Recover the amino acids of this structure.
């Protein structure tokens, strides 16, 4: 399936009243789902040609301290720490943030998705470098309440 076909499917899906759509073709799969006027696109390969070595996540990601809130990537895309390349980052380590404040952007399919702070607190750690790919559910930041 080429990019033009995918874009047409997404356009038709967004204009329809359908809430969920899943299409599988050979080794390609696409799943679209509407949530409060937001479209999520997931590309899941059905068959993998070569085995991929997976490393276990670091222990720090598995057992966060009780007062730490993990901010995870809401979708697959590119992580941006600032609104533009020449702007300063939204937040830095040891910076205090308030609930609802923009922390970073995840860009997917030319759509910039702002991610906001779920709680007020202090940024303890940022796990991702600017302009790198992130996966759904990947831990991006830690906030100490």
């Amino acid at each position: 399936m080429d990019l033009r076909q995918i874009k047409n499917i997404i356009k038709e899906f967004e204009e329809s009243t359908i809430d969920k759509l899943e299409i599988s073709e050979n080794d390609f799969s696409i799943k679209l789902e509407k949530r409060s006027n937001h479209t999520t696109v997931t590309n899941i390969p059905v068959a993998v040609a070569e085995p991929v070595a997976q490393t276990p996540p670091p222990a720090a990601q598995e057992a966060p301290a009780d007062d730490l809130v993990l901010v995870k990537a809401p979708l697959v895309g590119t992580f941006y720490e600032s609104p533009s390349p020449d702007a300063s980052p939204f937040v830095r380590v040891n910076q205090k943030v308030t609930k609802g404040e923009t922390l970073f952007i995840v860009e997917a399919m030319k759509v910039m998705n702002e991610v906001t702070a779920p709680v007020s607190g202090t940024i303890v750690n940022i796990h991702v470098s600017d302009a790198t790919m992130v996966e759904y559910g990947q831990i991006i930041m830690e906030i100490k309440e």
Remarks:
- The radius of gyration is 17 Å.
- The chain has two domains: 3-43, 64-144.
